[in-house]
Each structure stands twice: as structure tokens, then as C-alpha cells.
Amino acid sequence: MAKSEIFHRPVLLEKVLEFLITDLEGTYIDCTIGGGGHAKGILENTKGRLIGIDRDEGALVYSQRALGDYSSRLTLLRLSFGQLEELPGRVEEKKFQGFLFDLGISWYQIETPQRGFSYLVDGPLDMRMDREEGLTAEEVVNEYPQARLALLLTRYGEEPRAKRIARRIAQVRKRGRITSTLQLASIISPLFPSYARMRGLSRSFQAIRIEVNDELEQLKRGLRGAWGLLSVGGRICVISYHSLEDRIVKETFRALPGGKVLTKKVVRPSPEEVRGNPRARGAKLRAVEKVGGL
Predict the structure, then answer these.
(1) What is the pLDDT of residues 200-248, one digit of tens each?
(2) Residue 73's domain is classified under what CATH number?
(3) Cα dist. 181→123, 145, 221 in Å?
(4) Domain span at residue 234?
(5) With contact defined as beta carbons under 8 Å apart, do 14 and 268 qualify?
(6) 258: left (phi over 0), alpha (psi -120 to 50) or beta
(7) What is the band of 7 on the pLDDT scale with cuts at 50, 70, 90?
(8) How many Å apart are CA 203 and CA 152, to the nearest integer?
């Protein structure tokens, strides 16, 4: 496979490079290396080091192969956002020039049916970004009380039909355990008119995935950890894909001591980028610079 074919098309790459890179010799952290697309862009446009982290061991293995040409300037580590404070103990550097968070699910995870993230292909109800962690989507769907299911669908999916979906899941699982992605999708789909079906499935799967991976709390901890490790003059860039993430990023950036928000208005992909890369639809980029020593 040609090198150009193994990289996914990174979202908002030009804007990420514009906001993130302030020192060509600096060390940058890609906190969600995924398929390596943003990492490749950073490495091509700097002379310093890049540290790529991910909760997903499979993503690290994939990126190691994809970024082989840059191995002398690349370090890959298995860490979650919530473990960023451990970074200085794992590498030589103690401060860093920039952090990039590309949130949400990666194309690598979506295109691996065995991971159970997609409602379009059949796979086990897993959805764990770190497959060594305990809670799975199957456990959430089959073992959470109906009221708790409705709450997480409302809270993490912002789904208006949350109570109906939870009630239907509770009814079906009485007859036997729900074990696959397409089985779950077939239960949820009839509750929506055809024009709203894909959106409803997306919100429902999103809510379960966020619960399984504790994504919002991980994001809060990750942003705080990154800020403590950022050099003065360094920057944090975050690409989010739904309002829950974006709200956390926006509020956190505003509250950071010694921080200067660089994106007074959220940066969105152009219509041309969305046409060429549907994953970019809904993406929002925010950036902050550390101007004080706190």
C-alpha cells in the first residue's frame, strides 16, 4: 500500500497548522493520533519532535507503520487524556510547545467492525477506545436500568426520543441479550421517521460511546493536564464534533489563567473541505495560547 493511501484525510489541517505551530524546533503532542493524518502534517511542517498518544493500542500500531519515515522525530505512547500529567515522566521534555486534540471517534475505529462503533456494519457491542478497560456498550445496553439509559441518551446524545428508545431497548432485552451493532440499530431505527433515522442512530450510538469511554470527563482532565505542561507562548488546539465537547472546550479556554483565546469565533471547515471529506461536517476548531506563566 502506498504511503499516501494509508493516511486518512485530516480535518481542518491547514488551520490546525496555522494555529498550533509557533516554534519550528518545538515538541508537539498529538493527543489523538488515530490514523496519523494530523501528525504527518505537523512533522512535515516542523523540524522538532512529535509525541503521539492514544488510548487505542491499535491506533498506535497503525500510526507507527504509517509514520515510519519520521521515526527519528516521533514517539508514540499509550495514554488517555486523563493521564497527560504522566507525560514528563515518560519523555525527556518537561514542557511542550503545543497540544492537539482531535476529538470523537477516528476513521480507524469506525472502519474496524470488531470495535463496534458503527451502526452501518455489524459488529459486537463494544465501543471501548481502550480494549483493556472494563465497561462495554453491551453492558450499558443490557444492564443499565431503563431510566439510566434514558438519562444518558438525553445527556450525551441530546436525543429528544430518549425515553422511547430506552423503553424499547428494555422491552427487547427481556427476550434475549442485545449483542451486536446492527441488532441495536434495528431496535432504534423504527422509532424515527425515515428522514431523521440516521441522525437518531448517530445520537444514540454517540451517547453510549461517551458513557463507555467517560469521554467528557477525560476531556476536562486532558485540557487541564495539557495547560500545566504547555510552555509560555505555546498553544492548545481542539477539534470537536458535537455541542457537548465544544461547550467544555469553550468554557475551559475562557477560564484558563494566563490564557489568550485565539478563536473568538469558532473555526469551521469550508464547504469545499466538507464536500471532499464528509467527516469534516460539524467540526469546530478552537485555539488558546499561554501568554502568562501560570
Answers:
(1) 999 999 999 999 999 999 999 999 999 999 999 999 999 999 999 999 9
(2) 3.40.50.150
(3) 5, 20, 30
(4) 3-102+215-290
(5) no
(6) left
(7) low
(8) 11
